[in-house]
Amino acid sequence: MLVVAEDVITRADDSSAAVRLLEALTAPGRKGTAQPASAQANALLDRALTAYTEPHAIANVAKLIRKRSADDHARAENASRVEIAALLTEADKAIEPLSILFHLGEAASTARRLGISDLEQQAVARLQSAPPVRWRTIEAEINLPPLFVNTFMRPFRYAKGWREALSVWFATEAPSGNHASNEATARKALNETVFRRVARVTIYGHHNLPKKVISSDDDAYTHELARIEQYAMDCYGGLLANALDLTRARFSIPTQADLETFILGSGTHPALARRLAQALRLYWVGEYAACVHLAAPKVEAAARALLLELNEPVYRTAVGDAAGQFPGLGVFLDHLVNNGFDPDWERFLRTFLLSEGRNVRNFVAHGFMDDPDRHTAALTLRACAVMALITSEATAQRDSADVRAALAKPLHGKPRRSSWQRVMDAARAAYLELRR
Predict the structure, then answer these.
(1) pTM for the whole thing?
(2) Is residue 139 part of a domain?
(3) Which domain-ending residue is among 93, 128, 163?
(4) Which of 313, 304, 314 is nearest to 269 (CA)?
(5) pLDDT digits (tens, 9 = 90+) for 245-277
(6) Which domain holds residue 92?
(7) Complete DSSP assignment for 376-435
(8) What is the tens place of the pLDDT at every residue in 41-69?
(9) For the chain, how many helices (H) and strands (E)?
(10) Which end of the chain, N or C, is more open, meaning fewer C-beta atoms within 10 Å of its C-beta?
């Protein structure tokens, strides 16, 4: 085995074969003692680290060295450094910006995982200054059936006043669509597209920096589901924006006081009613960025208020030097689901606001939301409204069952509108056709 391993390594032949041979040769004996040939095998293993040039081959050898170097930290660290250096070298050799980004991202994440901080900083610095990628966008025009669109807009065309129009707008369904139907569509899309199930996908975020790697079936399914939901939001966001624009055109912009009084009629917490009214007025004057920045954080505030009404133990108490604080929106949504929150609305809020989807909440909080369009503003208002309208005044003492009933039916039990169902069905069918 030693002779065969040495021959394979000398010729820099199949690295997987070399690793398997050396793994067997360096394995501990039955009583934990080293095999007679382990010293020679370890020497071969160290040779193999420099015999191969491909990053994946070096990674396999380095992994085995770390496995066999529990008592030799310097040897294990050297193997890790060689593995990271190979990725940096690949970035140096690459010409295409996307390839450069990929190798630098791999180097940074590998260095972080292995605890090599100086090489991590080097890789991240190079990643941040890498040449920009010229992304290409695939555009497709989807024409929703005019009959469905006209049916959706009819109540806004014939409303007798802005209060009636807003009442209808506040009763529209979750813009991401029906959760169960979206799940079925995601499974169908993955089953019809084998490439999506076997390929490793890297998602890039702001400044061309790698955000997430999707490699497992579960990750692929979660990503596909979020894509379908965002596609539905794109279709439905336009309808919501058109409805608000038509309301303004027909009735002009209501005063702040009138809007607050109208929203307070549902029993909403006064602070949330005030901010929702302000956000609506900002939308109607075309200040979409201000509208989004005001309305998005209030979704989390409303979720927190509902959980406090239920007396859910969500507050994280102080421990040592760590200050006590409330967790983020993602944790709140998990607790709301445990209390019967409508899954359609939970998925809309999660996909629209959190990192697995549009990530609007974090973009607003960290200054990445520069110039939102009217569709994004309308969707943010819808997210804010659905949560704000089921909160209650600070003086109100609702029974837990009443709060859970509001969570289960955020639209107060109003029936689903057939036009909404047809628009979403058409959107899902168009999405599957695009994926094919």
Answers:
(1) 0.79
(2) no
(3) 128
(4) 304
(5) 999 999 999 999 999 999 999 889 999 999 999
(6) 2-128
(7) HHHHHHHHHHHHHTT---TT----HHHHHHHHH-TTTTPPPPHHHHHHHHHHHHHHHHHH
(8) 888 888 988 888 899 999 999 999 998 88
(9) 21, 2
(10) C
